[in-house]
Amino acid sequence: MTIKYIILSVLAGVLIGISLPNLYVPFAFVFGFLILFNIISKGNVNLTFFYSFLTGFVFSLISFYWVNNAIVHYGNVNIFVSVLLYILLSSAFSLVQFVIPSIFTSVLIKRYSTYGILLFPFFWVWIELLREFFPFTGFPWNFAGYMLSYINPVSQIAEFIGIYGLSFLTVFIPVALFYHIKSKSTVSFSVMSVTVLLLIGVYIFGYIKIENFAPEGEKYRIAILQGNIPEEIKQDLDRREEVLDIYIRLFKEAAKEKPNLIVLPESALPFPPLAYDNPLKNRFFREIEDIKVAFLSGFDNYFTLNKEFYLYNSIFLYNEEHNSIYFYNKIKLVPFGEYVPPLFEPFKKLFPYLQGYDFRQGKEITTLNYKKMRIVPLICFEAIFSTFVGNFIKKGGNIIINITNDAWFGKTSAPYQHFEMARVRAIEYKLYLVRAANTGISAIVNPVGEIEKSLGLFKRGFIVGDVYINPYYSGTFYLKYRKILLLIFFVITVVLLFFREKRVLDITKRRLV
């Protein structure tokens, strides 16, 4: 271990970290990965473990710093304990996403020479695939593909290969460059040239796709309300009237624009939707009684049934007569935010913010249907789960509505990261995305990822825009063939390993003869 490589590892982590929202330093990740690959190429597994861990750790500190902000400000956790938890999270993330691919690649480089670096993007993406499902309900936050998705023409390829394919392309760019720098062979030059031409081709294809985009189908006018209510007010039971006043005013103002549907954020209205006789609920529906507009809102949905308490994070859809016609209970709950995993139950005594009732997990993937809209209802970070969203669309979904409350994140990069991940879902599945966020970013995004209307962070107001429901929508290439693409990806990974291993064995046999 030398000071030189420690500094380089830290620099690599910084360069990769600043490639994500909201910094988006163009192609900084290329130089970061090149530094990491140079360390991995030494073929020393022990040093690779340490330096790749350091790179991933610094990356995590930069890209997940908002976790510490949320724990301290809203979890009432001691700053020293919060920093410790932040360090543990960063360490765990680094071990999984950075160290494992680096170790495997280092072993292959030692055995197969520089050729081994070509396997790194495969190992990286396999880890990302696993992260959609583990740990707990999954944590697919800040995939490598989001380092490139801000170049909207390039992100159009997600319609065919999803965010995972975009991640592969992102990581393969520095891999191809490094492979040629080290090998300087005809093969390595060909690999690098094809990668550059592919990137240019993807950009041109995406640019044409965006330029030629024209909405199809029946038009619906959507209003999105952004209350911009600080979390301390939302959590104060004595200020529920104040919260209600804000949304009643916004609701009435937005209704003047004659929308077909009004969308409110996650947990927007401060009363239980199933309550039979609740003063706040009664007042809200009395105030909007003459406004014959359908609306959708998030609720903390709590009730008692057979002496047992139930709590769900829910979306309810109301028709023009303000009768509840559909609802959805959140399935992908946030660990330690909405529930405590059973293994960590003992820690409730140590952290007050973990105490109290856990949200229950919803069970059914379903669409909320209004007229020709088959709404994919996503609450909070459910929008970052690519496969999960696709499962809704396979149920007939033809428009994505994501409601969220990002007030927890404060003035950090998290709201930008969260929004970008949701935006890519619109491209991936070629559907309109309607996003209502308590403190922003609220937006209407079209199927090629263009933001048609938006309201920025910490602004109170509403936006109104049009979406189109295509009656002939049958899903994107990625939606239809994602399982086949996964199988092909697995086969290629195995073939690349087997091909080189066979060559090594053949060379060994010839030497023995």
Quick overview:
With 513 residues, the chain is an alpha/beta fold. The protein has 15 helices and 12 strands.
Quickly list its features.
disordered C terminus, 513 residues, alpha/beta, 6-stranded mixed sheet, 15 helices, globular, single chain
Task: Report the biggest beta sheet as strand number plus sense, adding barrel if it closes.
Answer: 6 strands, mixed
Task: Report the helical percentage.
Answer: 40-55%
Spatial order of the strands forming the largest sheet: 5-4-3-2-1-12
**How many β strands by DSSP?**
12
The dominant shape is globular
Strand content: 15-25%
Termini distance? 41 Å
The low-confidence runs, each spanning 5 or more residues with pLDDT under 50, are: 504-513
Give the topology string: H per helix, E per strand. Answer: HHHHHHHHHEHHEHEEEEEHEHEEEEH
**Rounded average pLDDT:** 92
Question: Can you describe what's shown?
Answer:
By secondary structure, the protein is an alpha/beta fold. It has helices spanning about 5-15, 30-40, 45-65, 65-75, 80-110, 120-130, 150-155, 160-185, 185-210, 230-235, 240-255, 280-285, 385-395, 415-430, 475-510, and strands at about 220-225, 260-265, 295-305, 310-320, 325-330, 370, 375-380, 400-405, 435, 440-445, 450-455, 460-470. Strands 5-4-3-2-1-12 form a 6-stranded mixed beta sheet, covered by helices on one side. The protein is globular, with a radius of gyration of 25 Å. About 45% of the residues are buried. Mean pLDDT is about 90; it is low at about 505-513.
